[in-house]
């Protein structure tokens, strides 16, 4: 409990959705900037691409992918509850299903992105 609030699944879903949404927005801003660099400063653009391919860049890319996947799955859960209000009864169950799908889809994708770090 924080300040009398019970931190439950609904609050965590809301918090993670907002955090992942802001992270996606920040990525879009960075993406617009790096595309701008491709035309205006190719040398700096190539340096940025080298950073993206570095181990730290790959970890950030994996984190971005996780944020995108969570945001999409939770957004689909919200859409289901918006169109079929009776499904709000199953909000908690659907949130756990989102996590199962997140892990099942996210681990193989993370492995592919991070594989060059380990030389596999």
Can you summarize this structure?
With 120 residues, this protein is mainly alpha-helical.
Descriptive overview:
The chain has a single domain (9-118), classed as Fumarate reductase/succinate dehydrogenase, transmembrane subunit (3 helical TM bundles of succinate and fumarate reductases, Up-down Bundle), CATH 1.20.1300.10. The N and C termini lie far apart (43 Å). It is 84% helix and 0% strand. α1 (9-40) packs across α3 (55-83). The model has no long low-confidence stretch (mean pLDDT 92). The chain is mainly α and 120 residues long. It has helices at residues 9-40, 42-53, 55-83, 91-118. The radius of gyration is 18 Å and the shape is elongated. The chain is built from 4 helices and no strands.
Secondary structure layout plus pairing:
Layout: H1 9-40, H2 42-53, H3 55-83, H4 91-118
Characteristic terms for this protein:
4 helices; 84% helix; mainly alpha; 120 residues; elongated; 3 helical TM bundles of succinate and fumarate reductases
Q: Judging from the principal axes of the Cα atoms, what is the shape?
A: elongated
For CATH, the homologous superfamily is named as Fumarate reductase/succinate dehydrogenase, transmembrane subunit
Please state the CA-atom Rg, rounded to the nearest Å: 18 Å
Supply the number of structural domains: 1
Range of helix content: over 70%
Report the strand count. Answer: 0
> Percent of residues in beta strands?
under 5%
Would you tell me which CATH topology applies?
Answer: 3 helical TM bundles of succinate and fumarate reductases
Major β-sheet annotation? none
Low-confidence stretches are: none
What is the second-level CATH architecture? Up-down Bundle
Regarding CATH, which class?
Answer: Mainly Alpha
| SSE string | HHHH
End-to-end distance:
43 Å
Mean of residue pLDDT? 92
- Structural class determined from secondary elements: mainly alpha
Tally of contiguous helical segments: 4
